[in-house]
């Protein structure tokens, strides 16, 4: 059974600015890791058919064991579609021995101009069953809050 998780947020920045933060390596490292994690991009190719590999490290893995190792989640992300400044579609695969994290999750980031800002809606489909829905939606919301702080500070 396929599962879909969602989160959205209005960000006080134009769609082009938000889109730029989705496709800039240093920006992504700064805002994508949810609270309690830090991230490092190992490989970067921001074009359709390209992608990136991110190492996410838990600052405290006591209550949140990693999927790849005790303290890390490693994810390979491919860019399936890029429509500036409206949409970024990513296909994410976690490195994990546990089959409950197997499969390809699709993350669709939709950007829509609203008033003086951008409504960002993230839809994750085919979420691996090992990822708890409440935790995943909280993680997406945390990344969106980080994205808002990041781009609003630059605007």
From TrEMBL:
Superkingdom of origin: Bacteria
Which species is this UniProt entry from? Streptomyces griseoflavus Tu4000
- Activator of Hsp90 ATPase homologue 1/2-like C-terminal domain: which residues? 12-152
Protein name, per record: Aha1 domain family protein
Concerning CDD domains, the annotation shows:
SRPBCC_CalC_Aha1-like_2
Supply the Pfam families for this chain: AHSA1
Protein family per UniProt: Belongs to the AHA1 family.
Q: Tell me the InterPro entries matching this sequence.
A: ASHA1/2-like_C, START-like_dom_sf
């Amino acid at each position: 059974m396929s599962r879909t998780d969602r989160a959205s947020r209005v960000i006080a920045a134009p769609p082009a600015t938000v889109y730029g933060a989705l496709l800039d390596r240093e920006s992504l490292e700064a805002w994508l890791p949810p609270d309690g994690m830090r991230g490092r991009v190992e490989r970067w190719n921001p074009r359709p058919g390209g992608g990136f590999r991110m190492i996410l490290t838990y600052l405290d893995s006591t209550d949140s064991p990693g999927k790849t190792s005790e303290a890390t989640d490693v994810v390979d992300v491919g860019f399936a579609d890029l429509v500036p400044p409206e949409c970024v579609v990513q296909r994410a695969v976690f490195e994990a021995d546990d089959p409950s994290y197997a499969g390809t999750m699709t993350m669709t980031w939709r950007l829509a101009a609203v008033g003086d800002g951008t409504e960002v809606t993230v839809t994750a489909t085919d979420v691996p069953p090992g990822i708890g829905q409440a935790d995943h939606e909280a993680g997406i919301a945390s990344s969106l809050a980080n994205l808002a702080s990041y781009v609003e500070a630059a605007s």
